[in-house]
Amino acid sequence: MTEQRTVGVVGVGRMGANMARRLREAGYPVTAVFDVDRDVATIVAAELGALAAETLAGVTASADTILTVVSDDAAMEAIFAERGDSLLAGARGKLFVNCATISPHVHVEVERRAAAAGAASIEACMASSISQARDGTLYLMIGGRRDAFERARPMLDKMSVALRYVGPAGKAAEVKALVNMVMNSNTAALAEGLGLGAALGLDLAMLSEIFAQTGANSRVLETDGMDMAAREHDCFFSAAHAAKDSGIALDLARERGVAVPIAAATKAQYDRMVELGMGDLDKSGIAELTFPGRAGA
Question: What is the pLDDT of residues 121-141, one digit of tens each?
Fold first, then answer.
């Protein structure tokens, strides 16, 4: 099938677990999983017939390719630590495929550390959600060495509907930060438009239909519009993650001296959701800050 015959997965929350399920169904033995939540790791491991590894080094020892789906920069740096328990222990010849949305400079550093350990590393940034992870239709943006990408490509083809190689380490993460910056801003703008429409007494189904036929249309209208109106905020992409990802884009803008006031205002809205205890809601929950009569408005 491919040079990388076995797969380990670090981070088996909603995205990681569904990616693991997809790979197993596609014929890739998932031999080990690891999560900071040991109960979750044990449940997913039992489902997949995999080892619930007690250490990161145990994942590396058990697999040829290690997929990582962690929450933030700190978690990424911890699993690739240069001392103590780490995925880098015994990593010579291994391939790391890192899917988390984190700061570009961390991907660059992980590639450096992996190379020093005799391993290869790429970033496979996802512009999709839980259902796409499960059915293998992710849109993946790839950064890192081209030869490492080609090694991973057969497996990535089983996970995705499209692959886009962006460039060296960090570049795919830059693109992903911009994707999420624009998506989050679109979501905030839609919540304001629908919230104001509600305050004006307009029929929101009618308003959404007109939005869809005009310059107000967006992918977010399709995915989140009715959820905002119905207050259905089951989490596919959390407000807390939206705040984090907008922050990554703001950091990049500050580094380059680019003014992004809309993105800054959007991040402030998602930060407010977190402060109000709504960080676990889907990003569509930003409507709770704009619709009249709702708790955060």
Answer: 999 999 878 889 999 999 999
Q: What residue ranges of the chain are covered by domains with CATH 3.40.50.720?
A: 7-169
Per-residue pLDDT at 84 exceeds 80:
yes
Indicate the pTM of the whole model.
0.92
Give me the architecture of the 7-169 domain, per CATH.
3-Layer(aba) Sandwich (3.40)
- Cβ atoms of 238 and 282 within 8 Å: the answer is yes
Residue 257 zone, left/alpha/beta (φ > 0; ψ -120 to 50; rest): left
